[in-house]
């Protein structure tokens, strides 16, 4: 019992039979024996539960009073709490009953039957079950939603990845590694950038960049990791002009680096799929080019030691090869990574972009201000970029083959044997390089001559051949000298004279029109009216040979003009002689001197007779003495003045008289 | 044996015109396997979903409800697993398409080759045109230079 509860004691009657009734006839009637079950039931009924009920009533009254006081804030679980408390009390009563029954041997539990549920209790049980099941379904539904979101993300990731991969596969070879050592999260895809056109048997440097692993970035998109140091570019240059070359090429590498920096900055911004694919494509192309550059370097490295190429290896380092072409020309070929080039540029200039432009302008200024003697040395350094492209083109055609047999602007047309033989390529390249350097020197000489002789015009004849160059020195009789009687083409004297200079490799060939060809005159063809003189010469004698040819052409022209007017003249290579009366001859002689600043071709008038020759032999006169009465220095005459001089001499011959023979 | 267009590794052409009959048979077998997987996964999903729906009835004994809740979780997990299997199948199909789509790849490569050939020819023509223009400009400039040199020298002469 709980404390505070009044203790009540009930006293049972003594278990003796008491007379229940007595009849008139004296028969005693005793109460019947109580059945065991009935006896037990009576004992159970004697248990008084009133105290519990009263207690409940008191508590209810109290709670009602509290509820009335706190009517403004009802708690939603209050009813449930009350129900639970009631259930707890009932359970405690039952537990007490069970304990009492267990303690009391006279009373045992016969059976237990669940009381029939009341409708509301049944419905509440059903509601609880339904709520539980609903909760299960909601849990399952939440699980399905989470899974669906995860699947959607995975599908989107895979769609992006495989979409990009399929698009890149259209241009690049995709391989898959099915090995177990694949990193988690990666399907083992790789890009194989090594071209099958490369000759496997001759490749020494197996490029580690040829296999590019395909990874996923944080967004699940396709990504490739390429170190910028691993991509090398081919650099060709002349030893001694490294600073100019590096500045000249710095702008190209600056543009590449600026693109790289730009992409690095934009990496932080989310790229859409299109940009991502383009960026990956660009990176793969950079690696592809780097592999090709490595192959070119390897081929050059291998062929450079072949003596038939005509070059000598003078320096070799890692990714660097220095070659000597002879005559003081040395070139280098190197593989430069973008970082090395960038650091070299930074070491030379502070502001990369602006200073990248300035050297080009300064080089233009150098071109404008360069004298002919200094241009000889600097001209060879201006074409290193084109040589770089040229050597790449040569080996590209060798490795991959040209796309079509026809090459419209083939500057590198090779013979069939050379095209198929790699060893001849390097020789061809360096011979082209040597030819370019040599032809620059030849051009300098020709420009020197053309500059000093005003009636000579230098015309370049593009050959579109890397080992052949051609120029024409053209001389035309001025229009003012043309006579009206020369309108008839057949009888007109030749008015245009040319001298053609061809350079094949390092051989100079001079071809010029010479004296008129008799048979050609009868044929009437312009190209066959004159003989063609052909000379092979070296560069030291080139200027003299050219000037002699030009002077002889002038002599021929004057000779023809004299014949046209009916004067009998004699012609030598550089001399035109008029016969005067009394056995005297008046000669117009040409003197060529390439070093003459005022003009390379000067003219002398020489009077020769029997007395003059004897005196000349005796006195051993200096031919350059203009004050001699037998020689007269006329100077550097133009064509008009020469023609006028000729007419004067013709008049002298016609008019006769020794007074004019002195030619004063 | 070949059902419709080539699926999976069946990029060898219709009608067994591929390199070998064994390859065609292997492709057909792989196609059959993939279809079985697809059907199995979908049947799995449908079966588990139907069980989920059938378990919706509320039973009197609460114990059975607990049992059914565990079963529902199990069925849901199986459904998700089947869906994941289907997704992996799709990934495999995509990978197979990448490595077996020779027809489209060849067509595209041929198309690109033609494009690049045209681009190469166009570049060659452009280079030749540039060369011709450069030669013409050079000739013109040489003519101008010659005429200007003559003028300078004539001015210098008295």
Notable features of this structure?
A: 664 residues; alpha+beta; five-stranded antiparallel beta sheet; rod-shaped; disordered C terminus; B: 158 residues; mainly alpha; 3 helices; elongated; disordered N terminus
Topology readout:
The complex is a heterodimer of chains A (664) and B (158).
Chain A lengths: L20 E2 L5 E2 L6 H10 L4 H20 L8 H26 L15 H51 L3 E4 L12 E4 L18 E6 L5 E3 L7 E7 L3 H25 L6 H31 L8 E6 L2 E7 L2 E9 H11 L3 H18 L2 H7 L5 H17 L15 H5 L1 H31 L3 E10 L2 E9 L19 E9 L2 E10 L1 H6 L6 E8 L1 H26 L4 E3 L3 E5 L5 E8 L8 E8 L1 H10 L11 E5 L3 H17 L9
Antiparallel strand pairs in A: 1-2, 3-4, 4-5, 5-6, 7-10, 8-9, 9-10, 11-12, 12-13, 13-14, 14-15, 16-17, 17-18, 18-19, 19-20
Helix pairs in contact in A: 4-6, 5-7, 5-8, 6-10, 9-12, 10-12, 12-14, 14-16
Chain B lengths: L20 H34 L7 H39 L1 H55 L2
Helix pairs in contact in B: 1-2
InterPro entries (chain B): Med22 (IPR009332)
Subcellular location (chain B): Nucleus
Pfam families (chain B): Med22 (PF06179)
Share in helix of chain A: 40-55%
Q: Provide mean pLDDT of chain A, rounded.
A: 75
Protein structure class of chain B: mainly alpha
Strand content of chain A: 15-25%
Structural notes for this entry:
- The complex is a heterodimer of chains A (about 675) and B (about 160).
- Chain A contains 16 helices and 20 strands.
- By secondary structure, chain A is of the alpha+beta class.
- In chain A, α10 (about 385-400) runs antiparallel to α12 (about 420-450).
- The N and C termini of chain A lie far apart (about 170 Å).
- Chain B is mostly helical and about 160 residues long.
- Helix content of chain B is about 80%, strand content about 0%.
- Chains A and B meet through α4 and β11 of A and α2 and α3 of B.
- Chain A: InterPro entries: Mediator_Med17 (IPR019313).
């Amino acid at each position: 019992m709980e404390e505070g509860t009044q203790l009540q004691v009930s006293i049972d009657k003594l278990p003796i039979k008491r007379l229940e009734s007595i009849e008139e006839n004296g028969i005693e009637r005793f109460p019947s024996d109580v059945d065991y079950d009935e006896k037990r039931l009576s004992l159970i009924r004697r248990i008084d539960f009133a105290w519990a009920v009263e207690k409940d009533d008191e508590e209810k009254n109290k709670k009602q009073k509290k509820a009335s006081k706190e009517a403004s804030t009802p708690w939603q679980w209050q009813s449930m709490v009350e129900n639970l408390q009631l259930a707890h009390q009932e359970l405690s009563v039952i537990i007490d009953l069970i304990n009492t029954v267990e303690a009391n041997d006279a009373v045992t539990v016969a059976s237990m039957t669940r009381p029939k549920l009341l409708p509301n209790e049944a419905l509440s049980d059903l509601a609880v079950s339904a709520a539980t099941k609903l909760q299960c379904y909601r849990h399952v539904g939440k699980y399905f939603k989470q899974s669906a979101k995860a699947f959607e993300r995975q599908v989107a990731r895979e769609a992006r990845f495989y979409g990009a991969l399929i698009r890149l596969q259209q241009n690049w070879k995709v391989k898959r590694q099915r090995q177990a050592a694949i990193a988690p999260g990666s399907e083992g895809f790789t890009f194989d950038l090594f071209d099958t056109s490369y000759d496997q048997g001759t490749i020494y440097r197996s490029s580690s960049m040829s296999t590019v692993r395909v990874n996923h970035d944080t967004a699940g998109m396709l990504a490739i990791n390429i170190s910028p140091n691993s991509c090398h570019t081919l650099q060709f240059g002349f030893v001694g002009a490294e600073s100019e070359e590096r500045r000249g090429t710095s702008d190209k590498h600056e543009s590449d680096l600026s693109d790289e920096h730009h992409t690095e900055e934009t990496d932080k911004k989310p790229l859409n799929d299109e940009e991502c694919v383009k960026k990956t494509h660009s990176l793969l192309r950079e690696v592809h080019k780097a592999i090709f550059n490595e192959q070119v370097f390897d081929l050059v490295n291998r062929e450079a030691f072949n003596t038939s190429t005509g070059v000598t290896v003078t320096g070799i380092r890692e990714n660097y090869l220095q070659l000597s072409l002879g005559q003081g020309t040395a070139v280098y070929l190197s593989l430069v990574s973008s970082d090395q080039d960038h650091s070299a540029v930074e070491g030379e200039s502070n502001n990369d972009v602006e200073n990248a432009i300035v050297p080009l302008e300064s080089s233009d200024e150098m071109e404008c201000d360069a004298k002919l003697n200094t241009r000889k040395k600097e001209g060879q350094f201006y074409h290193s970029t084109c040589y770089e492209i040229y050597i790449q083109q040569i080996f590209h055609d060798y490795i991959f083959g040209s796309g079509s047999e026809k090459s419209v602007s083939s500057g590198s047309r090779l013979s069939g044997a050379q095209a198929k033989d790699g060893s001849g390529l390097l020789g061809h390249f360096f011979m082209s390089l040597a030819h370019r350097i040599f032809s620059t020197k030849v051009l300098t000489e020709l420009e020197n001559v053309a500059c000093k002789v005003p009636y000579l015009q230098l015309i370049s004849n593009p050959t579109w051949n890397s080992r052949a160059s051609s120029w024409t020195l053209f001389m035309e009789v001025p229009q003012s000298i043309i006579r009206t009687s020369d309108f008839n083409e057949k009888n007109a004297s030749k008015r245009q004279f040319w001298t053609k200079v061809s350079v094949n490799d390092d051989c100079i060939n001079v071809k010029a029109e010479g004296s008129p060809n008799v048979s050609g005159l009868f044929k009437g063809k312009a190209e066959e009216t004159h003989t063609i003189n052909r000379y092979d010469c070296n560069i030291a004698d080139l200027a003299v040979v050219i000037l002699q040819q030009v002077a002889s052409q002038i002599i021929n022209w004057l000779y023809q003009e004299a014949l046209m007017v009916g004067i009998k003249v004699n012609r030598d290579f550089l001399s035109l002689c008029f016969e005067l009366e009394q056995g005297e001859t008046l000669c117009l002689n040409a003197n060529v001197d390439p070093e003459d600043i005022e003009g390379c071709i000067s003219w002398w008038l020489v009077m020769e007779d029997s007395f003059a020759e004897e005196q000349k032999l005796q006195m051993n006169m200096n031919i350059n003495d203009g004050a001699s009465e037998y020689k007269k220095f006329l100077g550097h005459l133009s064509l008009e003045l020469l023609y006028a001089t000729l007419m004067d001499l013709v008049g002298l011959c016609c008019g006769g008289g020794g007074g004019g023979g002195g030619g004063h | 044996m070949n059902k419709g267009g080539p699926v999976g590794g069946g990029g060898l052409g219709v009608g067994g015109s591929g390199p070998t009959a064994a390859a065609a048979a292997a492709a057909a077998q792989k196609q059959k396997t993939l279809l079985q997987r697809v059907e199995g996964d979908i049947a799995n999903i449908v079966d588990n979903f139907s069980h989920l729906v059938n378990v919706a009835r509320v039973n009197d004994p609460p114990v059975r409800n607990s049992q059914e809740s565990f079963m529902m979780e199990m069925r849901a997990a199986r459904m998700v697993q089947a869906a994941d299997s289907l997704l992996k199948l799709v990934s495999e199909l995509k990978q197979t398409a990448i490595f077996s789509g020779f027809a489209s790849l060849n067509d595209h490569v041929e198309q690109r080759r033609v494009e690049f050939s045209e681009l190469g020819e166009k570049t060659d023509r452009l280079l030749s045109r540039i060369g011709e223009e450069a030669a013409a400009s050079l000739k013109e400039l040489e003519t101008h230079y010659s005429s200007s040199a003559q003028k300078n020298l004539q001015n210098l002469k008295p």
